[in-house]
Amino acid sequence: MTIEQQLIDLTQQLLESIAGGDWETYARLCDPSLSAFEPESAGQLVEGLLFHKYFFDLGRDGTPHNTTMCSPHVRMLGSDSAVVSYVRLSQTLDSNGAPVIRRYEETRVWQQQEGEWKHVHFHRSVST
């Protein structure tokens, strides 16, 4: 397996942990100093895992979720760091049971630390 494919697989695992509310997997894949720009942070850079844990602690609503990573692109920044960019399609149901699809443009930065890839930064935008 190539490093690029390994990073795509880790990113998919990260996305599935988010969709499934699996905090243990999410925390294992992320560096404790994770930084992010995302819609929920209202334009502010957030650092650390506490901000993200809040959403995991809310729990899942029990509706089915599906996450599709479209056209992933991996750019190696050296032997120990990389950027993975893609569009994420998130399928859920609204309160009436009708399918809802949301689209996010995401860039995730991975760094190899002590032989393991860790998610260290991301930027997520929402398309309307």
Commentary on this structure:
The protein contains three helices and six strands. The protein is α+β, with helices and mostly antiparallel strands. The chain has one domain (3-127): Nuclear Transport Factor 2, Chain: A. A six-stranded mixed beta sheet has the order 2-1-6-5-4-3. β5 (99-113) and β6 (116-127) form a beta hairpin. It is globular and about 50 Å long. It starts with a helix and ends with a strand. The mean pLDDT is 94.
Draw up the topology in text:
Blueprint: H1 3-20, H2 23-29, E1 30-37, E2 46-47, H3 50-57, E3 66-76, E4 81-93, E5 99-113, E6 116-127
Parallel strand pairs: 1-6
Antiparallel strand pairs: 1-2, 3-4, 4-5, 5-6
Describe the structure in brief:
This is Calcium/calmodulin dependent protein kinase II association-domain-containing protein. The chain is α+β, with helices and mostly antiparallel strands and 128 residues long.
Strand order of the largest sheet: 2-1-6-5-4-3
User: Would you list the SSEs in sequence order as H and E?
Assistant: HHEEHEEEE
CATH C-level: Alpha Beta
Instruction: Quickly count the domains.
Output: 1
| Total strand segments | 6
Rounded to an integer, what's the Rg over CA atoms? Answer: 15 Å
Q: How many DSSP helices? A: 3
Share of residues in strands = over 45%
Question: Helix content range of the residues, please?
Answer: 25-40%
Largest sheet: 6 strands, mixed
In CATH, the topology is named Nuclear Transport Factor 2, Chain: A
Q: Please name the CATH architecture.
A: Roll
Which overall shape is indicated by the principal axes computed on the Cα atoms? globular
**Average residue pLDDT:** 94
Structural class: alpha+beta
InterPro entries: Ca/CaM-dep_prot_kinase-assoc, NTF2-like_dom_sf
Pfam families: CaMKII_AD
Keywords: Kinase, Transferase
GO molecular function: calcium/calmodulin-dependent protein kinase activity; calmodulin binding
